[in-house]
Amino acid sequence: MTKEKITIAVLTFIGGALGFILLQGPTALNNLQLLPDAYVQVSNKMKSLYFKDSTWSGTWSASADYEYTYEEGDTSDTDIIINLSVEQGEAHGEFYSKSLCEAAPMLDLLLIDGRVDASRKLHLIAYEMIGGKRRNFIAISASLPSDDDIKKNITTFNIQSGITDTFPTRIRLKKQLNENTEAHETQEYCLTKKWAFIKNELERRDASPKSNH
Question: pTM, whole model, 2 decimals?
Fold first, then answer.
């Protein structure tokens, strides 16, 4: 196509677009303005589908329910609870465990952030802000569950803890489909442990001999 024909084609397109806008008026302009927003919405939806946001999001624990028939070993014997919200592959949430606060009473819960990578593997870090600085304590990872586990809403999580060696390195947890109060109950338990620890430390400090200067 020659330069002159290209110019004519471009001018024809522009003229047609202007004519369309003049005929349709504000409706056409509004639709054109909505295109970027529509693209973002479609893009976000595609990301959510690709990264399996709905598969990962939810409260994961070892508690069973009666929606499925479970076999022994389907879930692990652990008190770990992972509460996750995943949007377009970006993960946030909380990590709860009675074993955690028994080993470190000041940690009534840990915050979670992370992501789902291109292979749809989940990578999480459980951390706490201490003295204005972030301290990473636990690394968590999981691959997409098998078809059989998906039917049971069960996922295997790999755990690497820097706090206590009482945590298993591999746990199988179930996503709770119904309202679950375990996380709240665990945090209440851990808060009780935390305040008892603080009280004991204050009493120990007050009881210690004061040096004379």
Answer: 0.74
